[in-house]
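Lab notebook: predicted structure, single chain.

Context: the supervisor wants predicted structures on file for every construct in the current expression panel, including those that have not yet been purified. This is the next one on the list. No modifications to the sequence; it matches the entry in the shared construct table.
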Amino acid sequence: MTRYFNKTYFLGFLILFIIEGLIAYFLKSGFIRHTFGDFLIVILLYCFTKSFIKTKPLPVAISVLVFAFIIEFLQMGNLLKHLQLQDHSVAILILGSTFQTTDLVAYTLGIFTVLIFELKLKNL
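Prediction complete. Output recorded below exactly as produced.
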């Protein structure tokens, strides 16, 4: 396996990571925190993955979306309680604590945004 690192995607990841951190720190509720943050998180995960894996955008986008959906559906079964992490704020922040269908919509729109952006760049 050859080593691969894409600075552009990693820079996108870092910028989105900082934005997500600022949202988590300064906003405790509302649309930006709960919905826009979910929209951005799949883009962040996509950029992180594309930083190290050289492949076409569609498989990465689908993988990230499936991963986000799995985490969201695991919240239905009280994932944090089963992992005994229900009192850990970092775990709650990363994995979430409640299932929301609006999160699924936000994840999907985030991935569609990535694919549109990649199509405009002719990487698709």
